[in-house]
Amino acid sequence: MSYENLDIYKISFDLFIETHRKSLKFPKHELYELGSQIRRSSDSVNSNIVEGYGRRVYKNDYLRFLRFSHSSCDETLNHIKKIIRIYPDLSSELELEKLVGNYRTLSIKIHNYIEYVQSNWRT
Q: Which residue segments constitute the domains of the chain, with CATH numbers given?
């Protein structure tokens, strides 16, 4: 088995690609402000799943990285909500509300996976 088999990995990878592409359509002055923050936090969601999986032999390490991933997911959501509020026209054009829904779903899935690992993972 590989991290690539995890639903949370697959979803977070696809969302990272989508988020990255959409962030490059932000106004120029936001490319290096909120755009950069969104790109980094969405990448962190995915990267922490991968890094944690590499440490899965150590349950507490794995859980720590999964929590980082969950926190980055919430951070990404918050940044997207800022863009929606600041640029409502851009938000509609880029379908950012849909992205919010997808990150909320991912957040729930990561949370559920953390609970699964806490209860069922071998030590």
A: 3-120 (1.20.1440.60)
